[in-house]
Queue: 3 jobs
Job 1
Amino acid sequence: MTFRQTSQFALSLSLALGACTNGNSSSPAETPTVVNTAEKSESKGVGPVTDIDVGSLDQGLVAKGKGIFESRCVACHKLNEKYVGPSLKGVTQRREAEWIMNMILNPSEMLQKDPVAKQLLAENLTQMANTSTTQDEARAILEYLRTIE
Ligand code: HEC
């Protein structure tokens, strides 16, 4: 690092710390963390999927995902209304692709650690089941969910 880079780094660090202090102006104990689960969240969740590139829609994958969804997920999910779990209509607009796959692959840890998943559990009062779905199958389900807007 040159001197110039170092001082820029120090400046951005102090700006970041400043922003952090401002954001915490009210005591955390008085402000319980309520996550708005209807808004697009930036969390990628907790689990095996850290970075996927969804690309353009793959119809073969959509068909595969639809089949898996109809056999493993419809017991709890409908597309247009809340059932045991939330309606999955538009879910790819409110969650990151990685988050959705981690929710499918790793629901119990997600429900313990991810703020959005924890909030969904508080609203739905039932735990999403582990469906023994593989990563390839979860990817196919994600492709199908992209068509449900
Ligand atoms: C036993 C019921 C059950 C089954 C089976 C189930 N889910 Fe869920 N799912 C839930 C519940 C309940 C939630 C909300 C979180 C919670 O309370 O655990 C949820 C949450 C989700 C979410 C997040 C929704 C949102 O609004 O962000 C996605 C995505 C999801 N499930 C996909 C699936 C898929 C795909 C399958 C099939 C592989 C599946 N689920 C199977 C009950 C279930």
Job 2
Amino acid sequence: MRERKWAATSAAEFTDEGAMRRPEGFRQWVFVGTTVTPNEMNKGKAEFPEFHHVYMDRAGFAHYKRTGTFRDGTVMIKELAGVASKQASSGAGYFPGGLQGLFASVKSRRQHPEAPGNWGFYGFGLAPPYEKTAEVEPVKNCVACHQAAAAQDLVFTQHYPVLKAIRAAAGGGESR
Ligand code: HEC
């Protein structure tokens, strides 16, 4: 029953072989925050250059809003954009250029029964419209850093003002 419900409501889809299909329409999901690691502040080559736009699927967000937790089936997206200029009419700063990378994480007991928090991590490449499918990443590529440094259930909620506001409103404060 639970399996069926998950399948009906999760934004994540997988091939029969277990690869994740590139989510469609994620730019219309809930935008939870942006970080920026400019190349020039990272010895010319940031690990994920440079803007990181983070989205969360709508059903996952609705659940988070209600409970402050990530439900089974949650999909998180990180899409990269380069720095195009450092000056605009609003002042000096970092102003984004083109989109240049798509990464995702999915919390799924079914797909990742053994993984920490049941999270699986995926990379869809650097050139839009990106790859159609992605294999789950080996643990060493992604999980260890998320497990060590993310504030809540392997998700970097400490960097997402929208999620922090929800926890603050619920009286939960910040977990890190
Ligand atoms: C060295 C640390 C590190 C590694 C390795 C890493 N990440 Fe992350 N990841 C972060 C940080 C920090 C954030 C918070 C937003 C940001 O700054 O990008 C993040 C955010 C994310 C998000 C948005 C949801 C969340 O969990 O906060 C996704 C999706 C993601 N990473 C996917 C990946 C994938 C896929 C890999 C492996 C290919 C990976 N990450 C490897 C540090 C890391």
Job 3
Amino acid sequence: VIIAGTILIVVVALFFAEFIASSTAPAPEAEPVSETSYADRVAALLVDADPVNGEALSQQYGCHACHVLAGENVAPPFAGVATRAAERRPPMTAAAYLYESIVNPAVYVVEPYASSMAQDYAQRIPDGDMGDILAYLLTLHAE
Ligand code: HEC
């Protein structure tokens, strides 16, 4: 009885420890991704996309309020973003990562910044504009 009681107490204690750990643990790692994540969607958006117009649009949609082209601000600078995008969530492509960063910014939050991007760009930015913005960001390679 004593052994059974001890085992029971240990099991209950482990259960509570696990419960407390899981309820206070930070959000789980971003979903696993593959090289095909968003691939079809992004490929469709990039057909006939215009990076020059995309630069103007990124001003128009207010992206530059937080993302200055170079230099630290409240958000990672856009300079070199295409190069970094390819390395952020491998094997996700740079284009897919950039797309996800705009339409679903909370999925992956770049350290040490706070997640402050609006969550509704997918609704606010029509496909044509989204393609142009993606094409623009994809031109911004690190030197
Ligand atoms: C209110 C400020 C704010 C605005 C406006 C904003 N962003 Fe962001 N953005 C951030 C912050 C902060 C991060 C880094 C934290 C994160 O990953 O959410 C970020 C991250 C990103 C990243 C990932 C950068 C990297 O180095 O991995 C991309 C791409 C991006 N934003 C694109 C855009 C585009 C395009 C727009 C306009 C449609 C925009 N953002 C508007 C604040 C903003």
